Every structure is written in C-alpha cells, then in structure tokens.
From TrEMBL:
<dbReference type="GO" id="GO:0005886">
    <property type="term" value="C:plasma membrane"/>
</dbReference>
<dbReference type="InterPro" id="IPR050059">
    <property type="entry name" value="ATP_synthase_B_chain"/>
</dbReference>
<comment type="similarity">
    <text>Belongs to the ATPase B chain family.</text>
</comment>
<dbReference type="GO" id="GO:0046933">
    <property type="term" value="F:proton-transporting ATP synthase activity, rotational mechanism"/>
</dbReference>
<dbReference type="Pfam" id="PF00430">
    <property type="entry name" value="ATP-synt_B"/>
</dbReference>
<keyword id="KW-0812">Transmembrane</keyword>
<keyword id="KW-0472">Membrane</keyword>
<keyword id="KW-1133">Transmembrane helix</keyword>
<keyword id="KW-1003">Cell membrane</keyword>
<comment type="function">
    <text>Component of the F(0) channel, it forms part of the peripheral stalk, linking F(1) to F(0).</text>
</comment>
<feature type="coiled-coil region">
    <location>
        <begin position="58"/>
        <end position="103"/>
    </location>
</feature>
<keyword id="KW-0175">Coiled coil</keyword>
<keyword id="KW-0406">Ion transport</keyword>
<comment type="function">
    <text>F(1)F(0) ATP synthase produces ATP from ADP in the presence of a proton or sodium gradient. F-type ATPases consist of two structural domains, F(1) containing the extramembraneous catalytic core and F(0) containing the membrane proton channel, linked together by a central stalk and a peripheral stalk. During catalysis, ATP synthesis in the catalytic domain of F(1) is coupled via a rotary mechanism of the central stalk subunits to proton translocation.</text>
</comment>
<keyword id="KW-0066">ATP synthesis</keyword>
<dbReference type="GO" id="GO:0045259">
    <property type="term" value="C:proton-transporting ATP synthase complex"/>
</dbReference>
<feature type="transmembrane region" description="Helical">
    <location>
        <begin position="25"/>
        <end position="44"/>
    </location>
</feature>
Length: 189
C-alpha cells in the first residue's frame, strides 16, 4: 500500500477560498505596480508642489513678517528720534521764551524806571515852577498888603513903586531871616 500524494485539485477537492488564483496574484501585483507608478508620477508631484508652495508661502510670510517687523522697528526708532528731537526743540523754545520774557521784563522795567524818572523830574520842575510862581504871587500880594498896611500905620502914602518894592523886599528878607533862624534853632534843639 503505497499511498500517493496528489495535489488538491487532482484529488477532487476544491481550492481554498483564502488563497487567490495565481493569475489574480499576478494581475494584482501588476495593477499595484501600475498604481504605484501612476501615484508616483501624478499624485506625488502634486503633493510635493503643494508642499513646496505651502513651504514657500510660509517662508514668504515669515520673511514678510520679519521685514514688516524690521520696518516697524525702524519706524519706531525714527519716531523715537523725532520725538526726542521735538522734545529738545520744545525745551529750546521754552528756554528762548523764558529768556525773551526776562529780557522783555527787564526792558519794561527799564522803560518804567526811565518814565518814572522823567515824570518825577517833570513833576519837580512843575512844582518848582509853581512854587516860584506862588512865591512871586505871594510876594506881590504880601508886598501890596504890607505897603497898604504900612501906609496906614505910618500915615504916608507909599505909592511910589520903587519905594514900595524896596520896602517889600526888605520885609521879606527880614521874614526869611527870621524863618531861617527858627529852623536852625529847631534842628539844633
């Protein structure tokens, strides 16, 4: 008894449903290779192009962001420099204004002092002129009264103008001398 080993198909048994036929394996393998080639030729370049575009866009965005940041930093520095310059210019303007204000005040004080001195000098001159006029007027009136009174007391007329003038001047000189003597005694005592 010898047994013989026969292949399954010859023995009449059916093929296993788990194992595909050889033609299907070859066809599947060829289809897989064609699909891989098509995927490598069509899909992968599109993915790589999309990846490259996305990378370029990101890098471009980053470069633009860096450039914008550099421009913003430069603008900030320029703004700070202009601000510092404006502050120093404002300080200079304030200092100039203070100096001009002090100069104007000094000039106005000087003008006020000159004007006050002029007014005082003018007032003194006017007072002296009025005093001189008042003294002359008083002398004239006192002289007239004195001569009238003296004429009544003496009983003679002092109508002569030269005589009247001499009498008045003598009377006023005596009056001034007595006034000066009183002031000298008042300041000594």
């Amino acid at each position: 008894m010898t047994t013989m080993v026969l292949p399954l198909s010859e023995a009449g048994e059916t093929a296993s449903p788990l194992l595909p036929h050889t033609a299907e394996i070859i066809f599947g393998f060829v289809f897989l290779i064609l699909l891989a080639i098509a995927f490598a030729k069509i899909v992968v370049p599109k993915f790589e192009k999309a990846y490259a575009d996305r990378t370029a866009a990101i890098e471009g965005g980053m470069n633009e962001a860096k450039q914008a940041q550099a421009e913003a930093k430069a603008a900030l520095e320029k703004y700070n420099a202009q601000l510092a310059e404006a502050r120093s210019e404002a300080a200079k303007i304030r200092e100039d204004a203070r100096e001009q204000g002090a100069q104007i005040i000094a000039e106005l004080r000087e003008q006020a002092n000159v004007e006050a001195e002029r007014i005082v000098t003018h007032a003194r001159a006017q007072i002296d002129a009025e005093r001189t006029q008042a003294v002359a007027s008083l002398r004239s009136e006192v002289g007239t009264m004195a001569t009238t009174l003296a004429g009544r007391i003496v009983g003679e007329s002092l109508e002569d103008e030269a005589r009247q003038r001499r009498t008045v001047e003598r009377f006023l000189a005596d009056l001034e001398a007595s006034e000066s003597a009183r002031q000298a005694v008042g300041t000594d005592g």
